[in-house]
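Lab meeting, action items carried over

1. Structure of the two-component assembly. Owner: GW. Status: complete.
Input record:
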Amino acid sequence: KAGVTQTPRYLIKTRGQQVTLSCSPISGHRSVSWYQQTPGQGLQFLFEYFSETQRNKGNFPGRFSGRQFSNSRSEMNVSTLELGDSALYLCASSFESSGAPQYFGPGTRLTVL
Amino acid sequence: GQQVMQIPQYQHVQEGEDFTTYCNSSTTLSNIQWYKQRPGGHPVFLIQLVKSGEVKKQKRLTFQFGEAKKNSSLHITATQTTDVGTYFCAGIKAAGNKLTFGGGTRVLVKP
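Predicted assembly:
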């Protein structure tokens, strides 16, 4: 099976802009979770989608949002970008839930200038 | 909220030596998972432990889940340069369904 894919792999944006990241899970996986990874804060859970519904949410401001499509592909959106949003954004898929073993994609490296 | 702590943050190991990294949770866990992230890569799932006192081995890696299901350890024997990376534990609290990751142990191997 093909692994989790994420696009784009790298992004450079300026403060105040918005960005949309895309994730395609492993075929057959219905749960997609998003994580933010920074050197200072480690891996932080953003949210999980299952069957097009947000099932779990981390402690991030409303500027961070997501959605899932009927084919399980997911997008994450960050509006009004801040310098502190610079990070590696990782998507992970699993068969059933965010509590099951996670299979991570390569990530999108976002730099906010 | 649930916290998962890992120690040490950094581990410098001489090639061929053994080392252990520890994971401690503030709450009882239903299961714990371990991941490895190579430099420049993404986390890769290694193993999941579910039962109290469970021990699992993968070649030179030994994973243990504590009796109280609040801590876990990863022991690597005869460290090799291929072991370089950051090892994360991630736990789910009892009756929960969301993974909380520890801060990771970054392992550097001296040849």
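2. GW to write a short summary for the group page. Key points so far: The interface with chain B takes residues 33, 35, 42-45, 48, 56, 90, 92, 97-99, 101-107 of chain A (CB under 8 Å). The two ends of chain A are 37 Å apart (CA to CA).
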